[in-house]
Amino acid sequence: MRRLLAALASLAVFLVAWKALTVLTGTPEYILPAPEVVVMRALRAMGIGPGGTGILWAHAWATLTEVLLGFALGAATAVLTGVALGKSVVVERVLSPYIVAAQAVPVLALAPLLDIWFGGGLLARVLVCALIVFFPIAIATMVGIRSADPLLREMMRSLGATPAQVTLRLEVPSAMPVLFGGLRVGVTLSVIGAVVAEWVSASVGLGVLINIADQGLFDTPLMFVALVALAVMGLAFYSLVVLAERHFVQHA
Amino acid sequence: MTITAPGPATGTGHAPQGLPVRLFGVSVAFPGRDGPLVALRDLDLEVPAGSFTVIIGPNGCGKSTLLRLVAGLVTPSSGTVAVGSMGPTVPRPGDGRVGIAFQQPRLVPWLTTLDNVALPLTLAGVPRAERRRRALEALARVGLDTAAGLRPRELSGGMAQRAALARALIGDPPVLLLDEPFSALDALTREAFDSELQRLWLERRRTVVMVTHSVGEAIRLADRVVVMTARPGRVARLVEVELPRPRPVTLTGGEAVRAEEAIRAALAAQQPVELRSWTDGDAP
Amino acid sequence: MSPTRLVTFALLALLASACTSDASPSVAPPSATRPPRDLEEVRLLLGFRPDVQFAPFYLAQQAGYFADEGLEVTIEHSNDVLRLVADGQAQVGVADATDVMIARTTGIPIRYVATLYERFPVALIGRRGTLPADPAGLAGHSIGTPGRFGSSWHALLAMLDAGGLTPDDVTIREYPQFNQVEGLLNGDVQFITGFRNNEPVQLRLRGLEPGLLTLDNVAPLPGPGIVTGDAQLAEDPGLVERFAAAVARAQAAVIEDPDAGVAAAVEAVPAIGEDVETATAVLDATAELWAGQGGFNEGRIDVERWTRAFALMQRLAFIDGSVPVEEMIAPEVRGGS
Predict the structure, then answer these.
(1) Which residues have a Cβ under 8 Å from the Cβ of B125 and sit 6 or more positions away?
(2) Do the Cβ atoms of B73 and A158 come within 8 Å?
(3) Could you tell me which residues come within 8 angstroms of residue C301 by beta carbon, excluding any fewer than 6 positions away?
(4) Edge-to-edge strands, sheet with B235-240
(5) Is C153 on the interface with A (CB under 8 A)?
(6) What are residue B52's phi and psi, to 5 degrees?
(7) Does A201 contact C153 at a Cβ distance shorter than 8 Å?
(8) What does the DSSP 8-state code read for residue C295?
(9) ipTM of the predicted structure?
(10) C21: distance to nearest CA of chain A, Å?
(11) Are C56 and C66 in contact (CB under 8 A)?
């Protein structure tokens, strides 16, 4: 309850500061719309009230799909790769240059290539999300796997545990706290990946809506609505990861 | 501190007696920064089946390495290690013939006490219900049945070490290896643990090999005390302790004094490795 | 002028500019030496990456046409020309007429003050001989376009409308990276929207002989022009007039001597010099679009065409007609036609 109040208070301060900025600087609506303008525009975009279009939903749903599929695919491959990297120095030596190089190349530059290679559809956009999600989770998994207590490793060995058992019952659970750190970063990156991918190739999605609002409708308040929708999406997924973390990481 | 009377272990399927342990001419060398580090050199030791053997010696003399050899965690650079006298005698982790408790409890932090104790059975693929039954049984043997649902961070140091002991006992291994299991406990708790350990051993007479730093503990528990030389370790002296059992916490009388003096004299003869070459490490 | 000589010329021009601190070295025939006076600073926003099509601006900078009007112009590029110019963060910009209609209708105080392109630069492009002569024949075809906004989209809808069609009558595929040329080349789409001064040149280079369906005789829309903010126009219309005059002069000079335009572009944007032949072809095609059927009109606004375009944009639901066409343009800047 207190945390909710604190969150609401900080939101109120933010909105008041935003409103004050627009009033004091006299910035026109098409440069920085006041919060109530954005709220009214949001209601219209959500199809609420007179003149409502509901334009937001189809775009938000498309982005949501990309974010979730991309995160799931990226996280799954990243965890598997991270385990391999963590367990084998050889694998790390061989793979890490490519993984780091792929991370160092901006995803904005890779997205058009993925678009060409994978036919410009949902798959290409999901792959962009997966790619941007991959690195932090793979590295977190690797570090986590290696963080397993060597004393517990010896204990497991003394009980005749197979390498697979050591991984499943000791290393992966040991990696959980670090792994969830990577998942937290990854899920927010997935939202970024979706928007980048939509800017490269899409006809629907919040990234497309931003483009339409910016370049087609010159509707700055609608851009803000799309941005807020992205922020809400990121916050919601982040919170889900934190909830999952509370459930899976009981120790420490 | 009392211990509830344990029921007989049922359904463990092991030979009822302990197995003998033998080491012939065993050397162990680890790679070190300045060339190989020789932990044990030409060590010969025979541990009779069902005996209680205590190993004592200077720091770094390879006592823990000796236990790891018997547990199959370390492979000798030369020589042979045998557990039992028939069939395959080379120790292999998880073969059910050896149980080990380490200096630290080494409990898995995210598992309950019950699941920690049952871990050897889980790894061996024992069905859940049987795991649970046998783990509760093992916990009862060490007086920890009320703590089954707690997690390691909720246990005191003594409770955690009991849980580790229960984990070593759960498969009812013919050979039990104890690597200073009570060294982190205060003196009073430790004496109580010694008594319980003696009782557990008297119940089943499995082979026990225990490492300690305490001469008093050695005399309270051992049939035979192995005094080791400084590194590279080998057997300096064997001291038989011929006292009736069950032994009380405080031992008096000629035999106790004789054994203690013999152990202390053998220990005093061991000097730091820097001052002696390994070749003249033999006992006086 | 052969490409080799042109490159040499461009390199010499580059050297000359490097040796002078003056930002206006003479590349084209120098204008009369001007008395030193304080130049007014003008910020010009262009909505596209640096390109040879902006040659008149580069030439006006380098040849002193701006300075002759008492202006010192700095050129910058932005995706948000209309809003930044309306807000006074730049005095002038270049934007599409159809975008001005939409932006003005949403309340952005922007005005179109001078025509740069008499002909609408976006056309429908396909393999030669595949395009129908009548827009009605587009039904059932697949068309690639960057997105559902901007001049390409406006042109496509106007084209379909002229044939009695809507976007539902064709298959539309979007290429947000403006790479619809690839889609046409690999057969993903039958036609694409493209700039008459750019895509056909690219396609010819890639071995595809293009055919065009233009809006010229179908639905004449006003092309890109110079825009400024209401506030700027109210406070200092003279600055805008002088700027537009200098640009019209430069356009005329480029029409007269395209090579001088290419040279100016190469000096301003050395990368253009990598492929002077293509740049020359693009600029030639661009200069054709500056002149309408009646020839180059020096930037004057065709109010009648604006009025018809306004009605069309309203019918296509891009604007609701709440802001009249008179508030969108300022024909007096170049003298109405």
Answers:
(1) none
(2) yes
(3) C112, C113, C114, C115, C222, C225, C329, C330, C331, C334, C336, C337
(4) B98-101, B175-179, B207-211, B52-56, B224-228, B235-240
(5) yes
(6) -110, 110
(7) no
(8) B
(9) 0.83
(10) 36
(11) no
| A161–B109 C-beta distance less than 8 A | no
Distance CA A88, CA A80 (A): 12
Q: Are strands C92-95 and C40-46 parallel, antiparallel or unpaired?
A: parallel
Considering all CA atoms of chain C, what is the largest pairwise distance in Å, rounded to the nearest integer? 63
* C-alpha angle C92-A222-A204 in degrees, rounded to nearest 5: 105
Q: Do chains A and B have 3 or more beta-carbon pairs under 8 angstroms? A: yes
CB crowding C300-323: b at 16 or more within 10 Å, else e: bbbeebbebbbebbbebebbeeeb
- Closest by alpha carbon to A135, among A192, A207, A89? A192
Question: With a cut of 70, which residues of chain C have pLDDT below it?
Answer: 1-37, 336-337
pTM of the model: 0.77
Please tell me the predicted confidence (pLDDT) of residue C36: 52
Minimal C-alpha gap between C34 and chain A (Å): 40
B131 interaction partners in chain A (CB closer than 8 Å)? none
CB A76 within 8 A of CB A182: no
- In 10 A of CB C45, how many CB atoms? 23
Q: Taking each helix axis from N to C terminus, what angle separates B157-169 and B187-204, rounded to the nearest 10 degrees?
A: 20
Q: CB-CB: which of B73, B94, B108 is closest to A152? A: B108
What is the full DSSP assignment across B147-169? Answer: GTT--GGGS-HHHHHHHHHHHHH
Answer whether B73 sits within 8 Å of A157, measured CB to CB. Answer: yes
DSSP-assigned letters across all residues of chain A: -HHHHHHHHHHHHHHHHHHHHHHHHT--TTTS--HHHHHHHHHHHTT-STT---HHHHHHHHHHHHHHHHHHHHHHHHHHHHHHHHH-HHHHHHHHHHHHHHHHS-HHHHHHHHHHHTTTSHHHHHHHHHHHHHHHHHHHHHHHHHTS-HHHHHHHHHTT--HHHHIIIIIHHHHHHHHHHHHHHHHHHHHHHHHHHHHHS-SSSHHHHHHIIIIIS--HHHHHHHHHHHHHHHHHHHHHHHHHHHHH----
Each residue's pLDDT tens digit, C232-281: 999 999 999 999 999 999 999 999 999 999 999 999 999 999 999 999 99
Q: Under 8 Å CB-to-CB from A185, ≥6 apart: which residues?
A: A136, A137, A140
Length of chain A: 252
Neighbours of chain C (3+ CB pairs under 8 A): A
Whole-angstrom distance, CA of residue B260 vs CA of residue B64: 22
**3-class state of residue B179 by DSSP:** strand
Q: Which residues of chain B have pLDDT under 50?
A: 1-15, 273-284
**Nearest chain A alpha carbon to B71:** A158
Give, in degrees to the nearest 5, the angle at Cα C143 between C138 and C149. Answer: 110
CA distance B73 to B66: 10
Residue A158: which of B93, B109, B122 has the nearest Cβ? B93
Burial of C36 (0-12, 13-18, 19+ CB in 10 A): exposed
